[in-house]
Design brief:
It is a single chain. The chain is of the alpha+beta class. The protein is built from 2 helices and 4 strands; from the N terminus they run ααββββ. A two-stranded antiparallel ribbon has the order 1-2. The longest helix has 9 residues. The radius of gyration is 32 Å and the shape is elongated.
């Protein structure tokens, strides 16, 4: 048992501090850290990666969505930007085809 405690870094009962010693260490005068003056906020670097800037069209964005099946409550997920009236997905539990309602 002693070897196990030594390997795990645990102290022996004879090496532990007494309550009085722990209290004395807690009450010891610890120098408080000096308050540091407020620093200026760091400036963000301008452009990274060669400084090139490109634009993308809205239809190039890819979105991930999830919805509960109105028939059974099963969570159905998909991706893309469906339009009203388009097929979203098919429920894996009750096999209902989900279509995005108009709105």
């Amino acid at each position: 048992m002693t070897n196990r405690n030594l390997l795990l870094g645990r102290s022996k009962p004879s090496e532990r501090l007494t309550r009085e010693e722990v209290a004395a260490l807690d009450q010891a005068a610890v120098p408080e850290p000096k308050p540091q003056p407020a620093s200026k906020p760091e400036k963000l670097p301008g452009k990274k990666g060669g400084g090139q800037q490109r634009t993308v069209r809205r239809n190039m964005l890819k979105f991930r969505w999830s919805v509960e099946c109105p028939g059974c409550g099963f969570k159905v997920t998909g991706e893309g930007q469906p339009r009203p009236g388009e097929r979203l997905a098919r429920c894996g539990r009750c096999k209902v085809v989900l279509v995005l309602g108009g709105g």
